[in-house]
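[job 4471] stage=fold_predict status=RUNNING
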Amino acid sequence: MRHRIPLAALLLLAASAAGAQSRGFRAEYTVTVTDPATHLIHVAAEFSGLAQPTLDLALPTWTPGTYSVENYARNVLRFTITGAAGHPAPFTRVRKQTWRVDTRGLDRVRVTFDYLADRPGLDQAELDSTSGFITGTQLFLEPVGHRARPSTVRFELPVGWKVMSPLAQTSDSLLFRAANYDVLVDAPAQLGRFDVARFEVLGKPHYLVVQPSGALPEDSARKYFHLWNVKRIRPAEMWPYDYSRERESPLLWFSEGVSNYYANLSLFRSGIEAPVPFLNVLGDGVGYVEEVEARRYISPADASVSSWLGYDPPPVFFFNYYAAGQTLGVLL
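[job 4471] inference complete, writing structure tokens
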């Protein structure tokens, strides 16, 4: 007599198998800088505890917080994958930023490549003879199916260089831990020689990293406010992140523009900025909105969605949702 297994039971069994498979999985990354003048960062990633016939490894195409497809895989050189005893592991490129590895008979694979870091920008990796700056989206491959698993990152740097990262610190100043892949790739790292000032606010440690010494960016107050607006308060369309393509949202005017308003408001409330300069900044935003003809037929929500058409430079019909959002923040 045949017995039918309920679909719910099958799904539970499949989920349990996948969970058991993922529990033994480990991801370890190593970032090496040997000759900064070449602008090349060497990356090694080892994935162990494999119990699956194939493993997809994907590099993000964009960085959350900027709204532009950058296709980081275009900067990858000398990409290799090896298995047991260093023998080459067969793989194919199934998407522009995704490699599929044949892992039958393998419990671990090691991926190595060089990354060309010669483009300055908050969503780019940059390396020169004196310093380096990276965000995880440029260097760290996602082991598809294991996104919730923790990982480690080790930095190997020239003599005299150090690293500062928001990832969890360990007793080794060059070794960091990430709770999951999203935490890993959302973490920037400053490399080289720089100044660090530590202070506490309400018992929470803060680190101000200045490179080069004495150079403080003018928009630091807005970036800090992003810890609440965008980091903690995210548009529903953005989460969970899909690093392989655009994630359009009509709420960038709130995420970016209202952050502009609160950044300036924070400076005013703290006494750093006087009333007249504060009002002048708000007035400039109002003036921009009133003077741009595109506002008559493009809403801040539409401008937010169309940001992906061109972030830098923007499209010809661009309506600045930063200024619009700042003005709406004042009104709200």
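[job 4471] summary: The first strand starts at residue 26 and ends at 32.
[job 4471] exit 0
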